[in-house]
Amino acid sequence: MIDEWQPSGPTEEDAVFSLANLMWRKCRAQKFVQAKLNAAALFSGSPTSVENQGLTLFSWFMDSEPETAFERYAETLLTSANVSHLKQKFPRANYESTSEWAEAVKAEINSLSPGWSTPRPRELNALATIMRSLRAESQVASEDELNLRERLDAMIARQVKQLAQTKAMKQMLRQASTT
Question: Which residues contact 62 (CB under 8 A, 6 or more apart)?
């Protein structure tokens, strides 16, 4: 934003920082709504069902993207106790290959949930379908989110207008002082 607007003086700097703050808030609000939609879709049911769904999905991610599954999904899909347990029991550095580490983590997940079994290909396809539908649902904004986005867009537009007016006024004053 600073490169784009090249503020000169505290008034323009404040306007640019306010504009950046508003744009950050808009991005954060969109991510928050997406997370709420994902959580609502994933975790409807009893606590045990929720934990089993989280374990199943996490195991699926350990199969499909073991390099990033822990960083991207563990905190969201697993209980904090399970995350701590897995991190302590299976430090990545203790394994020569990612696949060896992922298999050990998945075996432990299997032991964490009695009656839970590694998803079969049909279940994995169902999980993949769920994930695709969640991504599609997350693109559909709720009415509250739309109202928030509209308010933030209006605030951004006002801030851009104020910044442009301030820059124009300064330029006019500079031209008037030189003549």
Answer: 69, 102, 105, 106, 109
Hey, is 46 helix, strand or coil?
Answer: coil
Average pLDDT for residues 142-153, to the nearest whole number? 82
Residue 97 backbone dihedrals phi, psi, to 5 degrees = -125, 155
pTM, full prediction: 0.46
Residue 126 has pLDDT above 70, yes or no: no
Cβ distance 149 to 8 under 8 Å? no
How confident is the model over 63-117, as pLDDT tens digits?
A: 888 998 888 888 888 888 888 999 999 999 999 999 999 999 988 887 876 554 5
Between CA 156 and CA 165 the distance in angstroms is 14
pLDDT value at residue 91: 94
Q: Mention every residue, 6+ apart, whose C-beta is less than 8 A from residue 115.
A: none
Q: Helix 10-42 vs helix 47-64: angle between axes, to the nearest 10 degrees? A: 110
Contact 16, 2 (CB under 8 A): yes
Token pair 């279940």 is at which residue? 123
Domain residue spans in the chain? Answer: 1-42+143-179, 45-140
